[in-house]
Amino acid sequence: MGLTFNYKQATPFLSDTEIRNIENEALEARETLLKGTGEGRDFLGWVDLPLNYDKEEFSRIKKAAQKIRKESEVFVVIGIGGSYLGAKAALEFLKKGLYNNKTRDQRGGPEIYFCGNSISTVYIKDIIDVIGDRDFSVNIISKSGTTTEPAVAFRVFRKLLEQKYGKAGAASRIYATTDKEKGALKKSADKEGYETFVIPDNVGGRFSVLTAVGLLPIAVSGANIDKLMLGAQKQRDHAINDDFKKNPALLYAALRNIMLRKGKSVEILANYDPCVHYVSEWWKQLYGESEGKDHKGLFPAAVDLTTDLHSLGQFIQDGSRIMFETIIDIKNPGEKILVEKDEANTDGLNYLQGEAIDYINRCAMKGTILAHTDGGVPNFVIKLERANEEALGRLFYFFEFACGVSGYMLGVNPFNQPGVESYKKNMFALLGKPGYEHERDELLERL
Ligand code: PA5
User: Model pTM greater than 0.70?
Assistant: First the structure.
């Protein structure tokens, strides 16, 4: 079955004419993307990545992952934004949130922690404490090689490695994923002799999960990266070849644009399994940075259900009618636990005896979809058969392709992120970085 996109529950909010009218726009946007005639055309390397990836590097990634799995009890992945969210999403989706709490035998590989995605002293110190005197390795990931958050964290962990293993020993435990020639990280990797992996010039950060950026940490977790690429390949075939009505990525891109034009300016990505939480975080960056510009775009929000039905459910059901919902539905969780009979039945749950917990979850999902639709929130459903590597490869590619198409339909360049620079400029000025002296005085006066 692969991946399907279903909009049946949104039909009360959409007419056939609206869908017919937008079809050509979606097809034209796909053409622009595939022919490379739109804005941001220098960043389309991800489109063919599932076929044209560097096979030599791919096998080096697998070898490095084996080495890390063998010689490390802890693996620290340092990166921010597109340089961490894809790997984190994959780890949680495939190995689940309690991966690090399992035994080494259950995991088969090291504990994996992500760092350099904030500037929290306490978080860095916690990771140092968690490592303790155990063996560890580090993957520093930064396309520009100059981003402050990961650079600061890397200094800390590089020093720890050097103190523990000496310079050469540390170098053999540091893996740098960065540009093929530019940036401070590439310079120090060459100088110190770290093994390096390349983020291709034509693949932007948030579209880089299927490069070494995502693949090395994913392989270290023991997940099968061949199957991940295969899933992406299969979804690519659909995205570039299928007719509009049978094309999940084109339909999703088109229908979310219809929603926006009708005043639904917030899209909520919802899931019914915590293993999808970080896929939503990855998706937020993908769509937020790609579409939120020129004062345009849908605001990408996310909820974990049923958890958030007890916090945000009231708002979704009954608050301002500015949103629609896209549900990621995993049909088969891969595990089965039944509700057992209890003679006393003091909790009144015997009506569920013999039912799988997943059956309860599915009834909650179906009931919520109908309730939210009744409340004026159109619902789309993306369905995956299972939470495995192939499904995740499909999902990553589906969202990336739909994002490119949707961005062009919206009339923005989906492949730049000019707005991200503003905070950096102010932070550098306040930190006294050479070259920012003028801005510093001005900012200090305002504070
Ligand atoms: O999508 C993007 O380009 C950004 O979110 C980057 O991934 C993020 O800013 C990290 O940049 P870098 O990999 O250069 O450290």
Answer: yes
